[in-house]
């Protein structure tokens, strides 16, 4: 059963590939809108679309990094992310 443009998915790698494609589509769409705004001398809207392009590119980079890490380390990499993703703090030692 299809659910919207993404459809049901349970494979993390396929999900990441799909959302990366969606982010790329967003970048293309917002770039076209920014160019149209520039053609119509609408600087404020152009800047808005340019910021949206930057946001979408940032999302793409995050998803690409996750995808690369799955390829490199396997699906167990995702389980490690549920533990906070940061190194535990070193306990303070009196006198340091």
The number of distinct β-strands equals 0
Which radius of gyration do the C-alpha atoms yield?
20 Å
Most strands sheet: none
**Mean of pLDDT:** 84
Helix content: 55-70%
Gross geometry: elongated
Give the DSSP E fraction (strand runs of 2 or more residues). Answer: under 5%
Uncertain segments of ≥5 residues (pLDDT<50)?
Answer: none
Which tags fit this structure?
single chain, 96 residues, mainly alpha, 3 helices, 68% helix
Explain this structure to me?
By secondary structure, this protein is mainly α. It has a domain of 67 residues. The chain has three helices and no strands. Helix 1 packs antiparallel against helix 2. The model has no long low-confidence stretch (mean pLDDT 84).
